[in-house]
Predict the structure.
Amino acid sequence: RNIYARVTLEPDGPYEISVADVGAEDWKAALARDCRIRVPSLHFDFDRPSLRAFESEPTLIKLADVLKAKNAPSVEVQGHADNIGEAGVAARQALSEGRARTVAAWLSAHGVPAAKVTARGYGKTRPLANND
């Protein structure tokens, strides 16, 4: 399996441990079978659309490899948000859109044809987990 770990010590703060488990899951087969892939281990700055590249790169590389395949379909990168952070539906919507665009831009910059990737934010309208 491909497991990446990073341990950092913030100034005047605790240690921060980031783990990316890219694992042995066959995303090509999942995409063909389910017409979707739920991508774990993408990390963003809190309440910002900025991608934490070091922590997210192993996952993004694996995703780009899947999407660069000749027979890979066009995909929609979806951004979702929870109800933590800035108040308001509009702020959560903008955050999810920004994060989806950031991932799509990274993929395009790393060899995935831009025409194969669209980005769409769903804000709090399609939560992936319980927002309680």
